Amino acid sequence: MDMSKDSLRGKHSNDSKSETTIMMLPSDANPKGNVFGGVILKHIDLIAGLVAKRHAGHANVVTASIDRVAFLKPVFIGNALILSARLNYVKRSSMEVEVIIMADDLDSGERTLTGTAFVTVVALDDAGKPVKVTPLILRTEDDRRRFLEGESRMNARLK
Ligand SMILES: CC(C)(COP(=O)(O)OP(=O)(O)OC[C@H]1O[C@@H](n2cnc3c(N)ncnc32)[C@H](O)[C@@H]1OP(=O)(O)O)[C@@H](O)C(=O)NCCC(=O)NCCS
């Protein structure tokens, strides 16, 4: 956690980014061994909420929307699902979290990109009303590029 002067003015995406690895079990899949899309969506939702909560601190956080997610490659029972999530953009109460989904074939060690998801999470106060969160600190060119792209996606999804 960044405890420099910056953290008083906001938080950097490194303060909230998260990664999780989950072994896919028979209960996650159809009879042929293909993992259900809904199982992956659940883990996307969970990690996006975790990242947003780390940024928002005390506030409650809820998912407002998940952009269209395409599953590019199958995930099978016995694969490890690896999700990496980070904040791209913070508006007022809303935050855009990008989640990268990888499937890890534990027999071969091969990792395959399965998809990318953009999740909008909104912070709520104790009364359940949307509440402003701390700004996102941008330090690098990559931070600024992601922020601008996130802003343009947010404008498009709110149209
Ligand atoms: C998301 C929710 C809080 C928005 O409430 P609202 O009354 O529309 O409030 P506002 O219009 O003030 O919007 C609040 C923020 O959400 C954003 N927002 C609202 N709908 C959105 C959507 N579909 N996609 C992305 N952002 C959205 C607004 O742009 C605004 O962002 P800002 O504060 O950064 O400017 C409300 O629709 C809700 O509670 N939905 C259910 C959330 C939930 O429970 N999810 C779990 C699954 S059921």
Description of the molecule:
With 159 residues, this protein is of the alpha+beta class. It has one domain (6-158): Thiol Ester Dehydrase, Chain A (Roll), CATH 3.10.129. It has helices spanning 6-9, 37-56, 141-158; strands at 11-12, 18-23, 60-66, 80-90, 94-104, 111-124, 136-137. The strands form 2 sheets. It has a 5-stranded antiparallel beta sheet with strand order 2-4-5-6-3. It is elongated and about 50 Å long. The structure holds coenzyme A. Coenzyme A (COA) binds next to strand 3, strand 6 and helix 3.
Question: Which helices and strands occur, and which strands form pairs?
Answer:
Elements: H1 6-9, E1 11-12, E2 18-23, H2 37-56, E3 60-66, E4 80-90, E5 94-104, E6 111-124, E7 136-137, H3 141-158
Parallel strand pairs: 1-7
Antiparallel strand pairs: 2-4, 3-6, 4-5, 5-6
This protein binds coenzyme A (COA).
Coenzyme A (COA) binds next to strand 3, strand 6 and helix 3.
